[in-house]
Design brief:
Maf protein; 202 residues; alpha/beta
Length: 202
């Protein structure tokens, strides 16, 4: 059994391309970056903590299986070594998108896969470069009113209307969306879950 430690509908949709059956078990953790913590270290730590928290939560179930694996991911938008989280207001969204306007930034997505006992923990980190065109304040305000940026790191969703801001991308598109498919498939294979074999079974 595979458990996705995320409430993200985007990650659920992407994982369903690789695995037919899995459970969804979101894990609440403190997502505050540590002082002077590097962005890549932060996103990997977040994925590990989510996976471990989900495994602890799952262990409380009476019918839990020791052959269950837990997959977690975390995505951060990084510009000038600063991690941009999810905006809580229009002002925060304006600040983020103005900062990203007309330049490149990094989207860092991590993965963690572990077993129930947390004896085996594997991680990956994927860095993609995204270049934005110039964005006007009017566009930022109009975009906010679509509700799309409100639950997105960096205040935009590349899989939605936010794609109109993206001039180019170098790296993994699925990682920018929230779950890098290539790296996820590689990680699952290490734990004996082979995506093509899974999806080809009737």
């Amino acid at each position: 059994m595979l458990v996705l430690a995320s409430a993200s509908p985007r990650r659920k949709e992407l994982l369903s391309l690789l695995v037919k059956e899995f459970e969804v078990l979101p894990a609440d953790i403190d997502e505050t970056p540590a002082l002077h913590e590097k962005a890549e270290d932060y996103v990997v730590r977040m994925a590990v903590e989510k996976a471990k928290a989900a495994s602890i939560k799952y262990r409380q179930k009476a019918d839990c299986s020791s052959t269950t694996f837990f997959l977690a991911s975390d995505t951060s938008v990084v510009v000038d070594a600063c991690i941009l989280g999810k905006p809580t207001s229009l002002e925060e969204s304006r600040s983020m998108l103005r900062r990203l306007s007309g330049r490149s930034h990094q989207v860092i997505t991590s993965l963690c896969l572990c077993n129930l006992e947390q004896e085996h923990v594997a991680t990956r980190c994927v860095v993609s470069d995204v270049c934005f065109r110039e964005i006007s304040d009017v566009e930022i305000d109009q975009y906010w009113r679509t509700n799309e940026p409100q639950d997105k790191a960096g205040s935009y969703g590349i899989q939605g209307l936010g794609a109109i801001f993206v001039r180019s991308i170098s790296g993994s598109y699925s990682a920018v969306v929230g779950l890098p498919l290539y790296e996820t498939a590689q990680l699952l294979a290490q734990f004996g879950i082979h995506s093509l074999e899974e999806m080809s079974h009737e």
